[in-house]
Amino acid sequence: MARYLVFDLETENYKTYKRFANPFDEINYVVARGWKAQGDERCSWSYHTGRSPENRLHIPDDVTLLVGHNLKFDLLWEWDNPELKAFFKRGGRIWCTQYAEYLIQGARQDYHMPSMDFIIESYGGRKKIDEVKALWEMGVKTSQIDKDLLIDYLVGTEAEGRNSGDIGNTELIFLGQIKKAMGKSMLKMIHTRMDGLCATAEMEFNGLKIDVEEARRRIKDMGEELIEMDAELEQYIPELPPELKFNWASNVHKSALIFGGTLKYIKKAPYIDEKTGTVARKQATEQWPLFGGYPTSPEGLAPCPNHYPTIFYPGQDVYTSGKKKGQGRFKAVTVPGEVKQKNQEFHVELPGYTVPDKKWETKNTDAVGHPVYQTSDDVIEELGSRDIPFLKLMAKRQSLVKDLGTYYLRYDESKKEYVGMMTCVMKHSHIIHHSLNHTSTVTTRLSSSDPNCQNIPKEGTSEVKKMFISRFAGGKMIEIDYTQLEIVVQALLTGDKQLIEDLLNKVDFHCKRVAAWKNISYEEAVARCKNPAHQEYKLWHGYRTDAKVFSFQRAYGAGAAKISDTTGMAVDDVKDLIEAEELLYPDILSFNQRVEQAVQKSAVPFRDPIRGFRTFRRGTWQAPTGTLYSWRTYDAPKWAKDKGINDTFMPTEMKNYPVQGTGGEIVQMQLGLLWRHFVANDNYGGRALLCNTVHDCVWIDSQPDVVHEVAVDAKRILESVPESLERIFGIHSPVPFPCEVEVGNNLFDKQVYHV
DNA sequence: TGTTAGAGCGCC
DNA sequence: AAAAGGCGCTCTAACA
Fold it and tell me: Residue A250 CB closer than 7 angstroms to strand B?
């Protein structure tokens, strides 16, 4: 008989290498484990004081589904548990209630990483005792929390029959979600994505091997390069007061330097006392001599020549009796002392090297309220023709600092700690265990964090990828990419005949756009744009680059004005090109219209707590796979408001989410299959490991002897999208999903691998 | 001392 | 007619 098993762990919770309750660090261990198999009347639990062979989840042979909330967290603790491996090998599946809830709710922002408490009441349950949570928030370690209290939290109190707590709530949510998912035709889609979740758990477990020697070399070199650059740049900084150190990382400083502006700095200085209207001073006491009973300032008085030091000044009052008889009389007088200083804001105006364009204004202002201007790469590029001496070097410095501080290591003086990706490299293994998040985007794409391993600079930007090496002796890194995934997905979703035909014919879309734009044949465009021997190659290759930018922008729904702005193409040319596309691929237009109609039709009002509880609307569209997408309205643009329309959906978002989301979904589906293949083959006998995914690609670390086999298998499995769609969803794909394999000693020095 | 918004920028 | 999509990290500046 098939049964589900709900389980949950309470673990020691030291955050190390940016990872909360890091399971890869021996410092942490499972403190308490709770579980309940389908049909059990009470939850079971165990309590532990450290790692041990007994501290493992037991999975009975008839269990076919593991259930948990934020299940990947718990699974990673058990990932090398032989019983879990056997469970997966016999086809066992998982259900994460957090992921399922996110999907059921259409990936809405407010359902990203939903906590159990956030959703429990909608499934008829009660929020848990928050005493344990309060202890955690105070920084108490799990192992220090009273055992009975922790167990109550985990599985419910004796009074509740030990059938509540985290475990009971998870079961309640799970059962409710199954019903909801069936009602919305989402069950197959959710089950499919859960295998994708296993694939990324495997990747986090395996992590990424870092060449720390290479990292050290680069950090040293870059540090030296930075010092040289700063010395070279120094000459362009105007003379500034010593309290103001020009900061090349400050947008305010850069804007003022380039375009002129006022910088502020803090300096200790005298100030006017409001009470007296004069310069503020400390109080001091002085001993003033008395003359005729009145104290007089001794300043300017000559000392008494005959009676000094008993009588200080000529004519000074003297004591006539007592111990001090005959001595000069003094009185303590309060006088203004040392000038007081306090921290005050001072300004210094920089003349600037050139005049800014109004469109570069930012929301920020300088010390006197003038706008701060953008100093981004785009702006620097536009300034290229203005003959400003230091801009190139400044841009170079900017990218070096970005590289060093984000992807290597840099000491942050203000935070008094190191920052950068290297802080996540584990000390002995030299592995980065990154996080791949399934519930953090509105399109159902994955995200990555701690560190983000989905934005590592590619060749041409940085040498960072050289650090990513194989963990095996003589091993290779394999990267497999889908080619033009989003265009393929657009063809799948829209069923556009021409787009399908073009994909099948392997048309170069950019050349095709150039042909439409310049009114020449496709063949002629290819000849001019792609053949360096052509006499006008340079010009036409440039047109193709414009067309490329055009396609990306169109994919994101940009309008003619914006595209004209970034490419420099004439607005009318862009408009013509858009029109030509709509005629060429008419089903893309009609698909977008169908999505918009569905969104408008399903729209319901809601109040936005972030925008003063004002009313907006939310609408959805469901993809053929069952994935639900959700959009909200925003304040209407001015021209719409003039027509009495208050709030509008963003057409750009409506065009983009289905394509971006379905692309992500397809990759995740295939990752699940790939992972199943690796499970069935015991990771090629431990010789190849899945280790990362970046939206349309997969990274694999492999021993040299299985590289070919792995590359062939992985390419075949990833390309089997049409078969998967047919088998799981009964969807026919009119287009293939081709992939390209690259292999190298690291992720930088890799080459196309023909299988 | 810690939090937050904005700018900027890396990836797809 | 019209508004370039999705992420996460680092840095500064302003604020409590």
Answer: no
